[in-house]
Fold this protein.
Amino acid sequence: MIYSVRANQPGFHAVQFTAGANMIVADRSASAGDKDTTNALGKSTLIDIIDFCLGSSPRPNRGLRIDTLQDWAFTLELSIGERRVLVTRAVASPQFVAIEGSTAGWPVAPEPNGDGVIGFHVNEWRAVLAWAMFNIRGRTFDGKYAVSPRSLLSYFVRNKPAAYNSPFKYFDNQKTWDIQLHNAFLLGLNWEKASQWQVLKDQKNALAALKEAIKTGAIDGELSSLGELEAERVRLQNKLLREREAMSTFRVLPQYREIETEANRLTAEIHRLVNANITEKRRIEKYDEALHSEAIPATDRLEALYSEARVSLPDAVTKTLADAREFNRQIVENRRQFIADEVAELRARIEAREAEKVELTERRASYLQTLAGHGALEEFTRLQDLLADSRLALDSTILRIDQLRQMMSRADEIKVETVGLKRSTELDYEERRDVWTRALTLFAEYSESLYNTPGRLVIDIDDTGYRYDVEIEGSPSEGISKMKIFCYDLMLVSFSRLRGLGIDFLVHDSTIFDGVDSRQRAHAIELASARAEEFGFQYICALNSDMVPTADFTPDFDFEKLVRLRLTDTDPSGSLLGFRY
Amino acid sequence: MILPSKHIAEGEALIGVGATLLEHLRGPATVSGLWEKVRAEPNVGTFERYVLAANFLFLIGAIDLRDGMLTRVVE
């Protein structure tokens, strides 16, 4: 139970609470405009402060953690077990929570900090709250998704408008597993099942992501079906066999390249010899032609020349005809000899080349013989590399086949586990029937007292886990949806009291009554007040003065007696912190 | 055939051919060697004309055959 809320700055309107219903009323003066003005009085701030002292994690520059409130520290007086303690948390150092009072029996004991103030880290405060409010001691569960005391408390201190949209959520983006698990805990169901469900979902999602990645080729290759991979494997195995075969029949000749080069050189040389002989044979032909075409002057021509010379150039002629004949004979002989010599020379060279050609051809033939049936070393090395590549490709294909098979069997396993989990959850649910039936009954009672027809709290188990719903007959309206939350919350705190859990307070902001009919508001407040007394819990509610359904209360109901604090806007000092911010 | 006349053109006359031979015969040359040099000259034409021209030059004492080589005779 919460006894009081205080702060370290003057001007703060400290408030004291008792058992049963406690009302905070914000007075709108006549000069005030719309709803927004009364919010500045601090109704929601009070809820925020209570949440803050109960270990919330406000982000920097949001809510209370703003510069204007740098020097503020808030103190909550509440009962932990049988004893009262004072819990103080400063805006400037939210990691530390100071504790005053007896902490005997606590799972974690506070200790003096550097400044001698007794307290501990806010995480340890949360652990103490888990134990005190919900009987959660230490780490009862080793899994990834465990119950969190802060999540649980958020159903009893619904802070911020986003907490008033659905009974099962305390903020809009609450994760499915978080919703399933914490409501299961509060409804007396097996919350560990919800945890297991999320683990299975994670595995399923991871598997789906892997499959998608393989399909889109993010992991290696276009072949994605098992059939295609098996066909590829067969192809690679055959290729490997062929390459192995080729390698086993390959005979390496170490000097292969040298011999090959030499054989090529011989070929070039042989060609050169052949070409040279062709050229020189042609030259012989030309000389033959010359021999035939070179006519020599006939004797009578020579005589004619001599005669004419004697006549035309008498003084010039110094030789006799006999001299001339001899000269002529020598010239012709000279020429003939020259040609004969040339031809003989050419013939000799041609023969020599032919002989050399024969020798080189024989040599080359023997080299080619040596090379035949062998291969160079680097070719062998290349074959080895190809073989290694094929081996690698085959191994990688086999690996992918295995991976795919494993994935498929894992998918099947997950399916089986999901079915098994659903079954065991259903069995467990049946076993706990007596427990949660009481929750359902309470909800029906509460909704009936508001709407004359009993509403239904529905708990289902489907393939994705626990599923919750509340139904209250009547046309869907903002008012009804808020009252669904009201009945659910009231049921939760009542039910928790019945189960012997330590949580014994429920705090609502004025948002709970948005759009709600005046009559329902009156019923709701009276119901809360009555049940709080019956079950021994505390109901704290903040609302605007113009929302107080004075006209609809039953005659015996004294609302004023329940008001613990009035905030006004006639003056800034009338707001919770003593000033507007 | 030696001098140009009504019937023999200047280019055909042996005297021209002889001059051509002498032009190419700066130093001693073999018959084949000189022949190779002058056979392309337009007025020489055939081996027969070459020989005739050589004979003519011999007749007038312009060249001689010494050690198997055709040589100019210089006075």
Q: What stands out?
A: The mean pLDDT of chain B is 87. The interface with chain A takes residues 1-3, 14, 30-32, 35, 46-48, 51-52, 54-56, 58-61, 65, 68, 70 of chain B (CB under 8 Å). The helical segments of chain B are 14-24, 31-38, 47-59. The first strand of chain B starts at residue 63 and ends at 66.
